[in-house]
Design a protein that fits this description.
Elements (H helix, E strand, L loop, with lengths): L30 H16 L27 E4 L1 E16 L4 E4 L4 E5 L6 E2 L4 E5 L2 E7 L15 H12 L13 H13 L13 E4 L3 E6 L6 E2 L4 E7 L3 E7 L11 E5 L5 E14 L9 E10 L4 H9 L3 E19 L4 E2 L5 E7 L2 E13 L2 E5 L8 E4 L2
Parallel strand pairs: 7-8
Antiparallel strand pairs: 1-21, 2-12, 2-16, 3-11, 4-6, 4-10, 5-9, 6-7, 9-11, 12-15, 13-14, 13-16, 14-15, 16-20, 17-18, 18-19, 18-21, 19-20
């Protein structure tokens, strides 16, 4: 007559047996072991990264629960919340990767800044034969003499810096004109250089902004020449450097928001500003090199105490929390609340007073021991069954 026996798995929408019907044979319900299998499988599939799982094929052929004959041993409520799948990785707080400044002119090093010194636009980065090598801001490195008739991005960089330093009488564009040369001669006079109107190769160094001297690779009095290292420099702002596996690129895209946890427990928001591919040598003589990602994270604010904590640190190990996936305002239950349905897929056991029924659900994001669910008639606050 279609009666559900204890050996049959549950189907979505089934109700408990009516009172007075013949009781089933006294075999154990095995609720706890079945739910443990669901939990273990879900955890194995989600792993450390964000995984979106539907009910298709998951726990295919697994054991199923019979229609409820009694209330479950424990319950929980369906919750509406934002579900974040996060991953913590190690990072290093510092000033980011260093850039090496090499000499482009022969001569003798006559002055160097101190390690840790900060150099801004228009100031001397070092001196050769007592003439300054000047720091200017720009994205294109200096690679040639700049003179009347030259065209290009480096010309525009030079003119923009001259304007910021207070020189005028020319148009900021990509063409080196006589007006540009006149402004250069005025600048040369102010810096104690010969007034040639030509910016010779090696007279300026273009950097993204103000720099902090990291290390010195030469000493005053030493000879220098084209290609010889003089010093290395970094930016002046604290950043966090993170190494990730290549497959984690989806988490660390440029602009991704993260949370940085400092050694004292303070938390500071951050944002990924740069991602580069790096090749790391293998651990052994025959080991193959590994391709990894290096992400730079800028610190974007946070509480005053946390910002002070950052300022006090020079080099420090920190934790960086990436959000791999986010689902806002979704219904969630603990992963252990899922039951495998006889017809396939997953459901939850909805508790209504002294009776229960099974409702089929679609699963979404798994994170933090919870899972996103959707199904007919499900709302936040409903009670569902749980293992003890």
């Amino acid at each position: 007559m279609g009666r559900t026996t204890l050996g049959d798995p549950p189907a979505a929408g089934t109700d408990p047996p009516a009172s007075g019907t013949e009781p089933p044979s006294p075999r154990p319900r095995r609720r706890r072991g079945r739910r443990a299998a669901v939990l273990l499988t879900a955890v194995a599939l989600t792993g450390a990264a964000a995984v979106t799982v539907t009910n298709a094929g998951l726990l295919e052929g697994g054991g199923a629960e019979p229609a409820a004959a009694a209330l479950p041993p424990a319950t929980t409520r369906i919750t509406e919340q934002t579900l974040d799948d996060t991953r913590d990785v190690d990072g290093e707080l510092g000033y980011g990767p260093a850039t090496t400044a090499v000499s482009r002119r022969p001569g003798t090093i006559t002055w160097l800044p101190d390690s840790g010194a900060r150099v801004s636009r228009g100031r001397s980065l070092y001196r050769v034969d007592n003439d300054p090598v000047v720091l200017l801001y720009g994205s294109t490195p200096a690679y040639r003499d700049l003179r009347i008739g030259a065209e290009g991005r480096d010309v525009e960089n030079l003119e923009r810096n001259l304007r910021e330093l207070g020189y005028d009488g020319f148009t900021v564009d990509d063409t080196y004109t006589e007006a540009t040369a006149a402004a250069v001669m005025e600048w040369q006079d102010d810096r104690g250089l010969d007034q040639t109107g030509v910016v010779e190769l090696g007279r300026v160094v273009f950097a993204a902004g103000a720099v902090r001297v990291e290390t010195l690779d030469a000493q005053p009095g030493q000879p220098t020449g084209p290609g010889r290292k003089v010093l290395s420099y970094t930016g002046t702002e604290k950043v966090v450097t993170v190494r990730l596996d290549a497959e984690d690129q989806r988490m660390a895209g440029k602009g991704a928001k993260v949370t940085v946890t400092l050694p004292d427990g303070g938390r500071v928001p951050g944002k990924v500003t740069e991602v580069a591919t790096v090749i790391e040598p293998g651990d052994g003589p025959n080991a193959e090199p590994q391709t990894r990602l290096e992400a730079l994270v800028s610190l974007t604010g946070g509480k005053k105490a946390a910002r002070k904590g950052v300022a006090r640190l020079d080099q420090a190990a920190v934790d960086v929390t990436f959000t791999a996936a986010r689902r806002e305002d979704v219904l969630t239950v603990p992963v252990a609340a899922l039951v495998a349905l006889r017809e396939g897929g997953f459901g939850v056991e909805v508790v209504e007073g002294t009776s229960t029924r099974y409702v089929a659900v679609e699963t979404g994001l798994f994170a933090g021991g919870r899972v996103e669910i959707s199904g007919p008639g499900l709302t936040a606050g409903m009670t569902v069954g749980m293992p003890r």
